[in-house]
Amino acid sequence: MPLPNIPGYNRLTKTHKYSAAGIAAAGAAAIAFAVVPGGDAGAKTTAQDLPNKPVALTSQQADAQAHHEVLTKQSALAAKQAKEEAAKKAAAKKAAAEAAAKKAADEAAAKKAAEAKAAKERDTKQAASRSATRIETVAAQKKTYPDNLDGWIRESLDIMKQKGIPGSYQGIHRNIIRESGGDPRAINNWDINARNGVPSKGLLQVIAPTFQTYHVDGTSWDPYDPVANITAACNYAAARYGSMDNVNGPY
Predict the structure, then answer these.
(1) Which of 104, 211, 215, 229 is the most exposed place for a label (fewest CB within 10 A)?
(2) pLDDT per residue over 202-238, tens digit each?
(3) Boundaries of each Transglycosylase SLT domain copy (predicted)?
(4) pTM for this predicted structure
């Protein structure tokens, strides 16, 4: 700081010089404070003294606020779209599950119907087969034979075959001719059997006890019936001789 230009300044002591410099500085400060417009040494400025006016946003702040609002709207729209999309997916998944369940139920029903149809067809075929068998059996049972010695022997042979009784046409025919000459009403009233009260009767001359013991189911109980007589006699011969074919004389 330059020394003040005061006459005789250089002759002052150092103490006097510092005192003068201080006084000069204080005066300059007082002059500067006095020239401030509206200056009031005792006045103080506070926030309450500021005018109560709305604060205007700057252009940059307005842009930031607008951008924030756009982002908020976009976020809300995205959330709504995501919710709607999730609902659509859930509905589609539920519809697919229901369709799959319906398809499975339809397939099960179709399979069950097919099995029932197949079972019905099998039953129908089996019934038809049984019916055909019955028809064949009935036809066999209703097979007709001529009412003569040939027919009687053949009918007896068919019955014997069903019952497992052995014998041949030749063996039966041979014994019939010897015993009765082919007369189904033939009867022996002179031999020992007749004297005992049980005369031999029919084509193969069978006594009553023998006929009753060896009678074959399905034939008549009349000892004079040609088929019943032949069949019972062959059944007796099979039990005693092995077969009517083995009989070549009185038996």
Answers:
(1) 104
(2) 999 999 999 999 999 999 999 999 999 999 999 999 9
(3) 176-246
(4) 0.47
